[in-house]
Q: What sequence folds into this?
């Protein structure tokens, strides 16, 4: 193992492909994690992998994530590793050849043995971090969890020690290959994700407008 | 195990949570898979789960997906199950209480033992299906894979037999709870994903315009 700027480089986080920009820099990891709030959590359940979409939030070196299935699998096999993957799809990379087609993306994979958060104070803190990332401003606006609700929530904590980041954002790389002579169009098609206009709950009494932190989301990109 | 409209219901695909709409209907699975092209593939590597973002395409009862890491793990442990998860994030569900916050989403999980596609004819067919889903029109427009490129591509096939679908698309469900009296705004904030304007490769000679199937993507939602 070698280390570079805070993240441990192991066999599985070593980056193999050259056409992508791979990184073990903590700043790149923070950038990818900070640009979203939905991850795909891989856990072992009865010996087979299960991939669960769930929300997350980062506080310093700790990734907090929701997960009842994961919590259950963790209780059954406490020392089992998980993999948390966060992917931002940025576009299609359309090359001259089918073979060189790919996606523009930023992704991070975090590995480790998660900890089930049981201390009520840390749980409240972790949920605050998670809510702040998934729904900014709502922790201060909405009713906070009761003791009973807190007990009914499964929160996991994963330390940001073993991780890798991959970023692919260039044009197709067959522009200097013999295929360039084919005269075909090649380039990228960006993909963007944006918030739309807030839609009130149909049973909301008239006269209650969305607060500023919600109204301000419209037209913005999550995490931007 | 029981079966409903084509998909096998097992302990892990049985749907537990009531506030979401769960389904084992094949039509719902097809709808979720048909609305995207990026999945998260969970495989076992050295006994731990790894979650890899990759492209996919569906042909009848077969899900084809790219995956060199998965192919490697499959060679090492041929009878190991994988989990393929496809998630479409449709919005934030902002409730009166933090506890009732959630996401609007559509997701599918497909389980099974994948098959490494080695027959060149099926490989070509599978890649055509995959390309047709990820980059419609490009199979007929771009240069198709050579024999050598085909050999360098790892393609997996997974049968659509064991799967579950979850859809969450309503307003927050605390509109009839005591929290409704708090007078807080509650509702949803939609999240949409759209293609932007095609961006030519900087080394593309002038005068080559994007073909109609690429130009037509702008403003559209992937899979819509």
A:
């Amino acid at each position: 193992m070698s280390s570079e700027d805070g993240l441990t480089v192991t066999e599985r986080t070593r980056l193999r492909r050259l056409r992508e920009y791979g990184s073990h820099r903590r700043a790149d990891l923070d950038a990818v994690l900070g640009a979203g709030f939905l991850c795909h959590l891989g856990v072992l359940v009865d010996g087979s992998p299960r991939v669960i979409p769930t929300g997350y939030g980062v506080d310093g070196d700790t990734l907090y994530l929701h997960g009842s299935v994961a919590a259950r699998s963790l209780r059954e096999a406490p020392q089992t590793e998980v993999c948390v993957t966060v992917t931002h799809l940025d576009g299609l990379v359309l090359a001259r050849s089918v073979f060189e087609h790919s996606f523009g993306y930023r992704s991070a994979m975090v590995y480790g043995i998660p900890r089930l958060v049981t201390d009520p104070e840390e749980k409240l803190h972790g949920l605050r971090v998670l809510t702040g990332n998934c729904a900014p401003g709502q922790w201060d606006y909405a009713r906070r969890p009761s003791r009973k609700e807190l007990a009914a929530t499964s929160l996991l904590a994963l330390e940001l020690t073993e991780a890798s980041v991959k970023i692919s954002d260039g044009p197709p790389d067959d522009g200097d290959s013999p295929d360039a002579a084919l005269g075909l169009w090649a380039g990228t098609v960006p993909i963007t994700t944006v918030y739309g206009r807030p839609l009130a709950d149909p049973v909301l009494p008239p006269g209650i407008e969305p607060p500023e932190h919600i109204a301000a989301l419209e037209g913005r990109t999550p995490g931007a």
Summary: Chain B has two domains: 2-171+183-191, 195-224. The longest strand of chain B covers residues 82-94.
